[in-house]
Amino acid sequence: MTIEQLQKRLREAHARIGFEGRFAFTIGQQDGPQAGCYVTHWFRPTPYAFEDCKSVGAGTVADCIAALDRYVADYPRPMTNEEVGMTLGIIPPHEERYKVAAE
């Protein structure tokens, strides 16, 4: 896998989680037990919080890509603006809007 292909996979994963935070892919430069790669996800739990880091995967490049795919698949989908509005009661649920529009 080339660096460009790896960057593309990271960009696609970032898009699939709604561009929340950033992914870091680190390639080990040493021999021995420290060798290999790892992927981390850096994010802010709230807009005013310090940045937090979550380990996504470690091992070979293939291991890290597989771990990234699993992480993205299990990542909770962020709420849309419409869903937030309905939760806060600012936007009525769909059924009510359709009833009002049909009257």
TrEMBL record:
Domain of life: Bacteria
Full protein name: Uncharacterized protein
Organism: Skermanella cutis
Organism phylogeny: Bacteria, Pseudomonadati, Pseudomonadota, Alphaproteobacteria, Rhodospirillales
